[in-house]
Amino acid sequence: MLDDDTTFLYDLARNSEELQLIEYLTGAEKPMIRHRAAELLGGLTTGTSPEVQERITRALHRTAKADDSDAVRAAAIDALYLRNEDSLESLIDAVTEGDIDDTPAWMRTERVTDWLESDHAELRLIAAAALGRIGDRAATEPLVGVFDDPDVRVRARAVQSCGQLGDPRCVDALAARLTDGHDQVRREAAAALASIGTESALQALAPAARSDSEAVRRIALGELGRFETLEPLPLLLEGLDDSDELVRRTATRSLLELLANAPSDSSHDVRNEVASAVMSATPPDLVSQLLTILGGNQPDYIRRNATWLLGQVVDSETARLQDAQTTLVEALDDPDDITAKFAMSTLSELEGANLLVRLRRYAERDDISAAARSRAEFVCQKLEGSPSRTAVTNAVEVTYVSDPADYTAKKRERDIESADE
């Protein structure tokens, strides 16, 4: 039990005397003073210079590693967590990556699992995180043993570490965490199962993907795109037909991730199967979800696959055909060249006089690149008949790519031919 003679430290905190607090943290003889100084420094996250903030972080790091009191070390770890999770991550890195002289005695590899039984949640937290990074599957059983830890941070880190270890033996225990009372733990459990990636891991995710809870369904579906096979496709198709819009959007995004994660040697077959399955399932608003995704700030691989998939599902009967056309036309000037070429290929296959008018107006704009103008002109000529040789050349060669693997393969062949010449 801490004494009540640390009130003077609160005055230092109120007066922003951070340097004096650091002195008490690192030099006070009484553990209770060091403990309270650590707590107060954890709350001083604003109002001081970056240099002072860095000194606070370094002092908390040293205390967490070297103080001879479990309670003080725990307070320092909690302070790092409160200040900035990146600071906590750097401590974990220091513990797991430093040489034996740099690693504190209480965190040496042979004793890490012992600290999962500490009375201090913060020490259990560091141990749970460190075990995943150390990478020894012998830690699986001790980690599973703290899946029901009363501290949500410990549970989440233990679950995350099991995902890093990739040990199939913990699939059932991870599946049980999909119904944890905290979103953070549920999310980590779904991610861990996806990392393990076995058939049993997918089967464990299936009930969560069909849960009565919209939040749980979103979490499970959000991880299915990490698989490198088409095994999750039936669950994702169900998700595309979910009653909740956010769940449908999550399923759509995961479907795009699944396409991106397909092995390059089977990408074409994967895309054909996905396109066929999607067309057979007829999701109610897939076009709308793809348009929403394309309207956001997405990485290249998502825009590429969303543009490609939009080209598979949009036709003259599509309810949001005009919106789809507008999005595809604007994508002709996408900063990612492959996305722009997918848009060009898709537009070349669409019909409708309105599209021609839109493309001609687009080609006349002053705010588009020369490449985008050439692509628009090529599509116009393609829709009207056969494009001229000049239009084909200006449209930047690859028009009818069916997927990124095709584009990559064709580009590699041209590069080899150029080198031979």
Automatic annotation (TrEMBL):
A Gene Ontology MF term for this entry? Answer: oxidoreductase activity
The record, for Pfam families, names: HEAT (PF02985), HEAT_2 (PF13646)
Write down the InterPro entries for this protein, in alphabetical order. ARM-like, ARM-type_fold, HEAT, HEAT_type_2, PBS_lyase_HEAT
Q: Which SUPFAM superfamilies match?
A: ARM repeat
Task: Determine if Repeat is one of this entry's keywords.
Answer: yes
Record's keyword terms, sorted: Repeat
Q: What does this protein do?
A: Catalyzes the hydroxylation of the N(6)-(4-aminobutyl)-L-lysine intermediate produced by deoxyhypusine synthase/DHPS on a critical lysine of the eukaryotic translation initiation factor 5A/eIF-5A. This is the second step of the post-translational modification of that lysine into an unusual amino acid residue named hypusine. Hypusination is unique to mature eIF-5A factor and is essential for its function.
Alphabetized PANTHER family for the sequence: DEOXYHYPUSINE HYDROXYLASE, PBS LYASE HEAT-LIKE PROTEIN
**In its UniProt entry, what is this protein called?**
HEAT repeat domain-containing protein
Species: Salinadaptatus halalkaliphilus
